[in-house]
Amino acid sequence: MNAHRNAHIIVLGNQKGGTGKSTTAMHLIAALMQEGASVASLDLDSAQGTLSRYIENRQRHYNNGATSLPLPTHGAINPSAATDRDEAQAEERFAVSEAIQELGTDHDFLIIDTPGADTHLNRLGHSFADTLITPINNSFIDLDVLGQVESDTYRVVRPSHYAEMVFKVKMEKARRELNRRTFDWVVVRNRGAQLESRNQKAVELATEALAKRIGFRVAPGFSERVIYRELFLEGLTLLDLSDKQLGVRLTLSHVAARQEVRDLMRAIGFVSTPDEG
Ligand SMILES: Nc1ncnc2c1ncn2[C@@H]1O[C@H](COP(=O)(O)OP(=O)(O)OP(=O)(O)O)[C@@H](O)[C@H]1O
Ligand SMILES: [Mg+2]
Questions:
Q1: 165-198 tens-digit pLDDT
Q2: What are the residues facing 41 on neighbouring strands?
Q3: Whole-model pTM above 0.85?
Q4: Of all helices (H) and strands (E), which one includes residue 220?
Q5: CATH code for the structural domain at 8-268
Q6: Using an 8 Å Cβ cutoff, are 74 and 57 in contact?
Q7: Cβ 48 under 6 angstroms from ligand 1
């Protein structure tokens, strides 16, 4: 697991499906490339393959000569087909270490997308994080994947299986690294309504309580906007839309959404470009 690499590794992880890992991964990739960073990406959820397909769609756009959008150096790992569990895990460990060695060298960032389920590839992905980003939808159901809270006081009853896994991986990383560094865990609220309800406010309070107990930070994520779903087929992100060759007229909603992407980059600590006026 001590693959040599230079890139800062950002892992998108949550053992719950459909929370926005792949969408956030693609937007971070585009935002970092726009910042001038060299970016690699690795899809550990290649059975589903959302991130790989997003990048293929982007590549097609590029090949058609429609645009000259930057592309990350991309890799994908399939789950092992071995029936013996130890053999399967050894194969996956080897494949991921090799990929990280290759993609992590000579790039500033490596973005790893993981499956939304408790699998070996999911845990393995987490073990390489310098920054772990966990998108959650703003609901008590999604919060339950991080920990159980009392309904009236939001007192934390117990951390979840996932939070315990992240804690274990953090401790293992601290033991492994000479400087005892662990990683920054950022929980990002995704698909929040633009007008906040009482329920959303309650979820926020409970998330803050969990953050203190479990040891993550909370960052603002993307609001619920159709545009996040529409861009996939063309492999585009909100940050590409100002590209003159694309000829897209930016609406106020686009501008607000692009600001959300920048705000997330800033919250994680990876932004230098100024906000839009
Ligand atoms: N901010 C948003 N606004 C609207 N739709 C969104 C937003 N973020 C994600 N979606 C949509 O939600 C669905 C799930 O998103 P995504 O595939 O990124 O999640 P995931 O966590 O990677 O899922 P999985 O666990 O299945 O890999 C997709 O249809 C995506 O287009
Ligand atoms: Mg996904």
A1: 999 999 998 888 877 788 999 999 999 887 778 8
A2: 74, 111
A3: yes
A4: strand 217-220
A5: 3.40.50.300
A6: no
A7: yes
